[in-house]
């Protein structure tokens, strides 16, 4: 879960871009910079665009948690836009 304070500058997105909808696996290319959340165990990572998501051995899941799947939680504007 990501937190913020009232004085934070946060803009709500309409979520129409694919990077909000898609799920990404270990070592895949990061589409946009941001905070990504693992859908199975709820861990979060901060990743930069064009880098790779953490590898499979970054953390392990139980059978109930399923495969490691990253989903964008907060997009960061590293280019200032």
Write structural notes for this entry:
With about 80 residues, the chain is mainly beta. The protein has one domain (about 20-75). Helices cover about 5% and strands about 20% of the residues. It has one helix and three strands; from the N terminus they run H-E-E-E. The longest helix has 4 residues, at about 20. It is globular, with a radius of gyration of 13 Å. About 10% of the residues are buried. The mean pLDDT is about 90.
List the main descriptive attributes of the protein structure presented here:
globular; 1 helix; mainly beta; 81 residues
How do the helices and strands line up, and which of them pair or pack?
Blueprint: H1 18-21, E1 34-38, E2 44-47, E3 70-75
Antiparallel strand pairs: 1-2, 1-3
- Kindly give the count of domains: 1
Work out the strand percent: 15-25%
Give the proportion of residues in helices: under 10%
- Kindly report the spatial arrangement of strands forming the biggest sheet: 2-1-3
Radius of gyration: 13 Å
Mean of all residue-level pLDDT scores: 90
Low-pLDDT stretches:
none
* DSSP strand tally: 3
**Largest sheet properties:** 3 strands, antiparallel
Tell me, briefly, the overall form.
globular
- Secondary-structure content class: mainly beta
Separation of the first and last Cα atoms: 24 Å
Oligomer: single chain
Count of DSSP-assigned helices = 1
How do the SSEs run, as a string of H and E? HEEE
């Amino acid at each position: 879960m990501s937190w913020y304070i009232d004085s934070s500058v946060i803009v709500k997105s309409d979520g129409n871009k694919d990077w909000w909808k898609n799920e990404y696996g270990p070592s895949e290319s990061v589409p946009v910079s941001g905070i990504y959340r693992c859908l199975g165990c709820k861990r979060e990572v901060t990743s930069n665009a064009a880098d790779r998501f953490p590898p499979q051995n970054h953390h392990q899941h139980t059978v109930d948690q399923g495969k490691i799947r990253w989903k964008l939680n907060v997009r960061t504007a590293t280019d200032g836009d």
